[in-house]
Records
---
Amino acid sequence: QVQLVESGGGLVQAGGSLRLSCAASGISFSLRTMGWYRQAPGKQRELVASITPGRSTNYADSVKGRFTISRDNAKSTAYLQMNSLKPEDTAVYYCNARGFGVSNPDYWGQGTQVTVSS
């Protein structure tokens, strides 16, 4: 059974920091590109950051220089360090394990709420 369990969300003041974690089980974690997405009320889900098995990273322009994605293959866990948070970062953040090939579909976590107060 595949599980992606996010943690670390919460309420923080603008300028503060949070670290999200995504603990994966039931998948070959080291072979997966891992991503963090977010969805604010009334908006589409958007990619925040991703990291490949080779640790190449990609960031949305809106978070470059403030957020850092990382992974620990030994712990099957992906992280998103979020610094200098802004009210517009408020959203539900979802962890994604990107699928590949026919037999390895995408998987999603249940989401964790991040609220940044001004």
---
Amino acid sequence: QVQLVESGGGLVQAGGSLRLSCVVSRSILSMINIGWYRRPPGQQRELVALITRGGSTNYADSVEGRFTISRDNAKNTVNLQMNSLKPEDTAVYYCKAVLWVEIRKYDYWGQGTQVTVSS
């Protein structure tokens, strides 16, 4: 079992910044990838940013150039630096880790952290 705990959400004005952190209960280098997802009000959950075991990153078009995903292997933490926030970034943000064990894939989710951007 893998636990993920997100933190860093809050209320910020448009144009401001927040830094989200996801602490994983085991080595993040054992994960195939770890990503940040979000669920805006009344919408489906969507991928925001992803970092693979090899260090490659992917971003949603809507956050490219504003958000940066990074990791601290020693602390088993994946961070999401969010700059130039917009009201449409308002959502619950979730961290997800993907682990392969033999031939099976396991997805582990955190509980989420609320980000609210006021105009």
---
Amino acid sequence: QVQLVESGGGLVQAGGSLRLSCAMSGSTSRLNAFGWYRQAPGKQRELVANIHSLGYTNYADSVKGRFTISKDNPKSTLYLQMNSLKPEDTAVYYCRAGLVGSGADYWGQGIQVTVSS
């Protein structure tokens, strides 16, 4: 089994920065796809950014140039550095990890990020 625990969320003013962390434990060495998603009130959950174990990254257009996804393999931790935050970034952010093509798919419990104007 795999457990994902997010941290680093909170309240920040527009223009500020936050760094989210996702601590992964369990059988994580076999996983090759990792990502951050978010869900705002009344909206569907959406992809923010993902990263493959080979290093490929992908970002939603709305966060390109402001957010950076990274992974520390020795620490089994996924990060999302969020800069120049906007009120529309307010959402619950979720960490996700999986093995492409296997059905192995794990989610964290989510963490609130609130950006005030």
---
Amino acid sequence: QVHVVESGGGLVQNGGSLTLSCAASGLDFASYVMAWFRQVSGKERELVAGISVNGATNYQDSVKGRFTISRDNAKNTVYLQMNNLEPEDTAVYYCKAKRGVWINYWGQGTQVTVSS
């Protein structure tokens, strides 16, 4: 059975930092593209950052230069280092493991709140 579990969310002040972690089990982690999404209530879920099986990364424009995604295949974990956080980054952050077109596993989400 596959499990995807996020952790590391919380309350932080404007300009602060947080690191989110996403641990996956029950799958061949190294063969999955991993990504972080976020969602604000009433809005669509949006891609924040992704990392391919070979380590290539991509970012939403609004987080470039502030967020860094990385993966540790030995620990079956993907990270999102978030620096210089802004109130607009407040959202529930979700981790997704993807392989091919049809295989997607989501975590339950972790709340990030940035106070102004």
